[in-house]
Design brief:
Helix 2 links the parallel strand 2 and strand 3. By secondary structure, this protein is an alpha/beta fold.
Length: 93
């Protein structure tokens, strides 16, 4: 079993991302670049059931748009990634 020091440190940046913008990517980059102890930043768009905000775009489309923006600007090999909210619950398994 890995010690706490050996485990990857991930910052989770959640939001509606409706629509995703370059400002979201810039903020994620700023989080990564100003916190030396963070290995990755994950952008996690909220699901479709959010009640406090009227979403115009389905979650899967916001997820895919974020992925396309990241690939275009940063590339496919991080340190910033997009993850579905539902996947966060499977990480411990």
């Amino acid at each position: 079993m890995k010690s706490l020091e050996d485990k990857k440190k991930i910052a989770i940046f959640g939001g509606s991302f409706d629509p995703p913008t370059l400002a979201h990517i810039e903020l994620a980059s700023e989080i990564y670049n100003t916190h030396n102890d963070i290995d990755e930043v994950w952008l996690v768009p909220c699901g479709d059931g959010r009640r406090d905000k009227s979403l115009r775009t389905k979650g899967i489309h916001r997820y895919n748009m974020l992925k396309l923006i990241l690939i275009d600007i940063i590339g496919e090999n991080g340190p910033i990634y997009v993850n579905l909210f539902s996947n966060l619950f499977r990480l411990g398994k």
